[in-house]
Structures are given as structure tokens and as C-alpha cells.
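User: I'm putting together notes for a lab meeting next week and I want to include a structural view of one of the chains we've been expressing. I don't have a solved structure, so I'd like a prediction I can at least talk through. The sequence is below, exactly as it appears in our construct file.
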Amino acid sequence: MKNFNYVNKEETAPVREQMEEIIRQVQDEVRDYFTFQYFIVGSAKRNMITRDEKSNTGFDFDYNIQPNCDFNEYLPAEIKRILRLAFEKVGKKYGYTKCEDSTRVITIKQYAYGLYGSNEIFHSCDFAIVRKLGKTVQYIHNDKSTGRYYWENQPKEFYKIDDKVRYIKREKCWNDVIDEYINLKRNNMDNEKKSRSLYAEAVNNVYYHLKNRCGNRRV
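Assistant: Thanks for the context. Below is the predicted structure for the 219-residue chain, given as C-alpha cells.
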């Protein structure tokens, strides 16, 4: 079992401030192509950032990047390439690595003391590129088996998360989410499962437990 614990906000707040400065500079970098909005999401939005004390992976943040552009003009692969290169260019000034392009996100990492040769990661940040089509949220999916990029609907567990959080807090059970999330982090064996997914799973687990206990009251 992993040894995840919550990280003090005093440690994470300066990093979040720097990360959002990087994002604002990336907005300037890509302005000739399109503008975008950004939103902190998942556990980081609730100041529930964790770190595995037994590993060298540090703590992480999750952001959604929502481009404002003509999606008939820009293909998903092009949007992701433009943003990836911009994050690499700006992030390099702050000691971050080149972007890793995974199935759902692009990731930048900062190693301890800014040493790329070090294997100790200080922190990292995952960026999912998303768009809204009515009530549907989609993200750019990188199909590793074919090399194709396309818009994919967000998994169902991500829908109405904020509404479910409000319901849980109204029932005074938020501590159950805090406990469930750290438990999922400690027992997760799937390295492809990101913090945002585990946070959504924790919220859904507590929410549906409460609904079963309290009946089908509306969120």
C-alpha cells in the first residue's frame, strides 16, 4: 500500500501561484491561434493535494484548458500540439520538463532543485484540453495504438461533480470524501489513473452511499 498523505496548503499555494502565472504566459504565447480559459479541477480545487511519502513523485495539480476557437478550423491534434509546445517553452523558464503527452492530458514536471538528472519530482501538473457541447464535456483523447487525436466524451463519473459535492456538504459528510480519497490514493495500483479520476471516484462513492441511505432526494 502506498503512503499518501495530504500536503499542507502553505507548501502548495506558492506552487499553484507560479503554475497559474505559467498558464497566463501560455495564453499570451498561443493568442495568435486562439484564446483559452483555465480551471483548476479535481482534488486541487478543494485543497486536497496529496503526496506519497514513500515515493519520489511529489504532489500534483490538475487543470482544464478550454480553448475558444473554431473547432472546424483546428483539429484536436493541432490544438494539443500548439498548447504542448507553448507549455514547454514557458515551463522551461521555470525549470519544468518537456510535456508528456498521455491519453487524456499533457503533463509538466519539476524535479527537486531543478535538476533534470535527479529522479526526485518536486511536483507536476496535468492539463486536460476540453470543450463543451451543450451539457456534454469532451476532452482531446490521444489514442496511443493508432496515433489519432479526437474529441472524446468525459466519463460519466465526472458529470455533476460540483452538484454532488454541494449535496455531500449539505449532509455534513465532507470528511467522508477526504477519508475516501486518501484511501483510494493509497490503494490505487493503476499508474494511468490520475488524481482527478480518483477524486471523482471518491465523491461518487460517498454520494451514492448517502443517496442509498437517505433515499432519492435531489442533488
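A couple of points you could mention at the meeting. The longest strand covers residues 121-133. The radius of gyration is 18 Å.

User: Perfect, that's what I needed.
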